[in-house]
Amino acid sequence: ETFQLFFQGSLRLFRGAKMTLMMFIRHHLAIFLQFGLQSLASLLESLPKDHSTYGYYLGIFREMADAVVSSQRSSGSWCSSLLDPEDFPQPENSGSSFYVYELAWGINHGILTGKAYENAALKGWEALKSYVGEDGFLGHIQRIGEAPEASRPRADETEVYGVGAFLLAGTQMM
Questions:
Q1: Closest CA to 99 of 169, 52, 167
Q2: Nearest to 71 by CA among 63, 79, 60
Q3: What distance, in Å, lies between the first and last C-alpha atoms of the chain?
Q4: pLDDT, tens only, 101-110
Q5: Residues 6+ apart with CB under 8 A from 66
Q6: Is the pLDDT of residue 4 over 80?
Q7: N or C end of the chain: which has fewer CB within 10 A?
Q8: DSSP category for residue 27
Q9: Buried b vs exposed e over 54-78: b needs ≥16 C-beta within 10 Å?
């Protein structure tokens, strides 16, 4: 029941909890967050492969990975809204870091195969590295808030969770 509330099957993405009920942007497109795919990666890592639901969650992980790959910007980054990047054109490096982690995790675990996944992960990683300043500062991380319009990512702003996500991505890219 909870899964049905948050998973948007036609879009192959999970919605954020508060945004599911309250927040819609231009053209009534929901803002989707990166945590659904990352949560599935954690679930698949701990769930025995012979468990009755493993194949079900594996299929969802693959569907979501396809949606993430198809929403990657030509720069290699992802925006705050996967569905409406024109409203939020800035790169968003906490989400981009999670997407790189998730794609690389899937590749490293033999779940995602093919050049499309590899290319997206590598292109995303290169984009992320380009946002790290000489002093190690990683900017373009959306501030804590309920909506991207209230906290558009800027080059001179960071958050610890974004840096953590970047480091997590690095663990899979090495």
A1: 169
A2: 79
A3: 38
A4: 999 999 999 9
A5: 12
A6: no
A7: N
A8: G
A9: eeebbebbbbbbebbbebbeeebbb
Alpha helices in the chain (DSSP H): 2-6, 17-21, 35-46, 54-70, 93-108, 115-130, 160-173
Phi, psi of 8 (to 5 degrees): -100, 90
- The total of other beta-carbon atoms located within 10 Å of residue 131's CB is 20
Using CA atoms, how far apart are residues 92 and 80, in angstroms rounded to an integer?
6
- Which residues are CB-contacts of 86 (< 8 A; sequence separation ≥ 6)? none
Where residue 129 falls (left for φ over 0; alpha for ψ -120 to 50; beta otherwise) is alpha
- Amino acid making up residue 138: L
What integer pLDDT is reported at residue 10 of this predicted model?
A: 60
Q: Name the β-bridge partners of 91.
A: 79
At residue 89, does pLDDT exceed 60? yes
- Alpha-carbon distance of 172 to 32, in angstroms, equals 23
Q: Are 118 and 107 in contact (CB under 8 A)?
A: yes
